[in-house]
Design a protein that fits this description.
Helices cover 30% and strands 23% of the residues. The chain is built from eight helices and ten strands. This is Esterase.
Length: 292
């Protein structure tokens, strides 16, 4: 059976044609990956930063267009979660990455700044959950503290060092699974900072009640855009698939009612894994940024 996608009636999914103070941050460059492709130099820079609310150092993966130092251009920025899973199979938790470097190599129109997650025990669940939850024997969500750091310290530092388009219209946030949940939360609660959210397979079932309460209370600007996806094979059976679909469409409806443009995408045969999120990159970025 061929791959198919479903677009749900009632949601806006238009493709537009165009799409502070400096704070100190600990910066220890640990690696610079330079990959040659013809005459172009394509870069993913890694460095260590301190996430101050946790008092922990964390590696950051930073994708830079090849001409960022010479073009005189400024670029939109996508802040993403689970940076180790985005660019290289060698650093990905399960051995397969999103292939985001290859995609951006062909569409060098953005900077991506992506801290690695906390790999210790359930700390990733805690950092990437904006609410307390009874799942997994209880999650004490510290996602708000993480986002306060990202918005208040990390983003200003990136903007001060690199040629970014720092305004809201050119700032997006994205991730998958728990990172997708955080992206949904962030683009809603910090809508004065992020105009776009890439929410791939967001783990909304962990906290549907507080999440939907926040969505109902949210005040979104009319140019806000959300890409929201879920996959057929993420569920163990038809009952669970119905739950996932209901949750996704509930979130999409609430966002749409607030005036946001929402692209709800059901990936036939889609699994909860990097290989299948990889197949959504072009669809997602073209919708969010209006790339041709």
């Amino acid at each position: 059976m061929g791959r198919r996608c479903f677009l749900f009636a009632g949601f806006s999914a238009k493709y537009p044609r165009a799409i502070e103070k400096k704070r100190r941050m600990r910066y220890n460059k640990t690696n610079l990956l330079i990959l040659l492709k013809g005459a172009r130099t394509l870069m993913v820079e890694t460095f260590t930063t301190r996430i101050t609310p946790y008092g922990l150092d964390r590696k950051v993966f930073l994708y830079l267009p090849d001409d960022w130092q010479t073009s005189g251009k400024r670029y939109p920025v996508v802040y993403m979660f689970d940076g180790h899973n985005l660019f290289f199979d060698a650093t990905a938790t399960y051995g397969t990455c999103w292939g985001l470097k290859e995609y951006l190599d062909a569409h060098p129109e953005a900077i991506v700044a992506a801290p690695e997650c906390n790999h210790e025990g359930n700390r990733r669940l805690e950092e990437y959950c904006p609410y307390d939850s009874d799942w997994f024997d209880g999650i004490h969500g510290t996602g708000k503290a993480y986002m306060d750091w990202l918005v208040g310290e990390f983003k200003p530092w990136i903007d001060a060092r690199y040629p970014t388009l720092s305004d809201r219209a050119h700032t997006a946030i994205g991730g998958s699974s728990m990172g997708g949940l955080m992206s949904l939360y962030a683009a809603t609660r910090y809508n004065d900072v992020f105009s776009k959210g890439a929410c791939l397979s967001p783990s909304v079932r962990l906290c549907m009640e507080p999440l939907t309460a926040d969505l109902r209370a949210a005040r979104l600007r009319k140019d806000t855009r959300f890409y929201l996806s879920w996959g057929e094979r993420e569920a163990r059976d038809q009952h669970q698939l119905a739950e996932y679909t209901h949750n996704a469409l509930t979130v999409a409806r609430l966002l749409s009612e607030k005036g946001a443009a929402v692209y709800p995408y059901f990936q036939m045969d889609g699994r909860h894994c990097e290989a299948d999120w990889r197949r959504q990159l072009d669809r997602c970025f073209r919708f969010l940024f209006g790339w041709e």
